[in-house]
Amino acid sequence: MVGPLLATALAGVCGVPLAASDRLRNAGQWAIGVSLGLYFTPGVGRLFWPLAPAIGAGVLWALVLGYGFHRLLAALNPAEAPATTYYAAAIGGASEMAVLADRAGAQVDRVAAAHSLRVLLVVLTLPLAFQLAGVHGADAFEPAVRVLQPRGLLLLTGLTLAGAALMRWARLPNPFVLGALGVTAALTLAGIELSALPPGATNAGQLFIGVALGTRFTPDFARVAPRWLLSVGLGSFAMLGVSALFATGLAALAGLHPATTILATSPGGIAEMCITAQVLELGVPVVTAFHVVRYVVVLLLTAPLGRWLGLGTGLGVVSPGPPSGP
User: Fold this and answer.
1) Banded pLDDT at 312 (limits 50, 70, 90)
2) Each residue of 203-231: pLDDT tens digit?
3) How many CA atoms within 13 Å lie on the side-chain side of 135?
């Protein structure tokens, strides 16, 4: 994922015209969703009730962290509309937050640029930091099925694509990740073991996702506003630092490995952080559960909380200020 992401981002910023295939991106998300779902064995399922308070704490932390990031962006960019800094700082998906920002009258280009840069920095920083620290296999979980069964794979493919299609029909976000993950996890939790994925499928999925992320970086992205991008970068690194401290404390309370909890509570995306957990064998189902629950709750609560804070539709425009005359 990281190699294609860097290559396409660098080429795009330099002006090379690039485009990502939506079909390949969806295929990559499907492969990641299925591969993650295969880790949810019945034994793993029994671990989640004791972890429910920790997952709830992780969701609350994401909301607090996003609000703190919003306040930082507002302080460093006083000319920006409050709605712009709010939706740019929310720890949610880039496309979903951009849609909410548009409804609130915020500057969508700045919101999209902020989320793209945040995800890029988290994806590059955490895996590199873990590898330099020698963190690997601290919470190793094994997928339920490790053998390819052609008939089972055909059935698994049909069921998971049906789940993705149902989520897409219902206009739910990230249907190919969450639909495939939900169906596969439900089957695996029930003890139904159909098939593993073909060798290389998850690597191909990482490549497609990396390219899709990298093509967001264009010459226009680099021209959005240097001050804005600098403040987003500084804020992203600050969030990584305070999240690591929070995760360390949460790990001690919940009995989890700190590296697993750092991934589970990091300000990154579902697919990217779960891929990192999978590659480094760091509690894949735990990280996945944290991110999926956080993703859904943040998506549902961000707009209502924004309206409660006075950032609803029509309030995302910068006020011209009080009149200068008497």
Assistant:
1) low
2) 898 899 888 878 878 887 767 678 888 99
3) 21
